[in-house]
Amino acid sequence: MHLHILAFLAVALVASHAAVPPEKYWNSVLPNTPMPKALSDLLQPGLVDDKSTSVDVGKGGVNVDAGKGKPAGGGTHVGVGGKGVGVQTGKPGGKGTNVGVGKGGVSVSTGHKGKPVYVGVKPGKNPFVYNYAATENQLHDDPNVALFFLEKDLHPGTKMNLHFTKNTNTATFLSRQVANSIPFSSNKVADIFNRFSVKPGSMEADIIQSTIEECEKTGIKGEEKYCATSLESMVDFSTSKLGKDVQAISTEVGKETQMQKYTIVPGVKKVGSDKSVVCHKQNYVYAVFYCHATETTQAYMVPLEGADGTKAKAVAVCHTNTSEWNPKHLAFQVLKVKPGTVPVCHFLPEDHVVWASK
Questions:
Q1: Contact indicator for 116, 225 with CB cutoff of 8 Å
Q2: pLDDT of 27 over the 90 cut
């Protein structure tokens, strides 16, 4: 079962709670801070004022259509009634995905024979976690390999082979009220599996368990880490470290391309001071971000132009002290340097966010 299929349940969960939309919380706490695309893209249709989404509440339950004004077309239909929740995506009667949630839990039919294939970062292989150790396979197969570089190369004219990838897990935010009602603890994984009808031992179960365990591990020296299970909790953590006069930025690429040569063009800008909060989206049933605050990082906005003309505004984070990192970290293997010797930088994928003081 795909994790992003399970994420459709979030719409129904939110529909059943009278929660304050996360965007309203953002605007109340950060009225002068625009929300970056990486976060606004993860707001559920049911949590924003979207004219293409209709919500009907009656005695039979709740019906949500998010089909851009085409409820009879290929959109998403969510029905919540006495028998539970039903979700259908794709053309009615076609090869779409059906998710049914009743007293027995969740049942998923993907519209074709065979098991669905999950594509993404494998459990325990997140290259943006400092204590992570790369495997030989990932040096060849992980597109994030290209995102690491040395700070001395951060200037106009530098050419780099880059591949900006989108996380295949498109899970959206739950409101804090809903997220807090769902366990997020290694002691409660059986309950979590049961809630989403995930089979223990499956790839999805491994991903869920690995993400939770990664969140529960102690950070390295000098790192304050926190896993935000809602947009509101991310706002609270980031502002508790940096204050409310902050900016939040994310990488934006004109269009998705394969690996190609990008050139840094004039206009590189330093963002904030040497203290920042960086939040990386995790693979999970709903949007969860691994956030860490350190005082040995410097963020930059870097304009890039691809060989095919694609323009990108990429966020780069440079780490000035890597002495506590795992010596087998992907960055050291790619750049052929040792921990604590030189500043190590990496571009962030499009679904990650940097928070910095203005």
A1: no
A2: yes
Q: Does the pLDDT at position 324 exceed 70?
A: yes
Would 270 be classed as within a structural domain? yes
Catalogue the E-assigned strands of the chain: 54-58, 61-65, 76-81, 84-89, 97-102, 105-109, 148-150, 159-162, 224-228, 246-249, 252-253, 260-264, 269-271, 276-281, 289-294, 297-306, 311-319, 344-347, 353-357
**Residue 221 pLDDT > 60:** yes
Per DSSP, the residues of 280-300 read EE--SSS--EEEEEESSEEEE
DSSP H/E element including 190: helix 189-195
The widest CA-to-CA distance across the chain, in whole angstroms, is 65
Contact 164, 350 (CB under 8 A): yes
Stated pTM of the model? 0.69
Structure tokens at 265: 């063009």
- Structural domain span for residue 63: 3-21+45-109
Look at the chain and report how many structural domains it folds into.
2
Distance of alpha carbon 229 from alpha carbon 287, whole angstroms: 7
Q: Is 64 helix (H, G, I), strand (E, B) or coil?
A: strand
Residue 154, SS3 per DSSP: coil
- Please name the residues in contact with 66: beta carbons below 8 A apart, sequence gap of 6 or more: 11, 45, 46, 50, 52, 53, 75, 76, 78
CB 336 within 8 A of CB 219: no
In this prediction, residues 134-150 reach a mean pLDDT of: 59
Q: Is-contact 179 47, C-beta < 8 A?
A: no
Q: Which residues partner with 99 through β-bridges?
A: 87, 108
Same domain, 84 and 212: no
Both tokens of residue 179? 């997220």
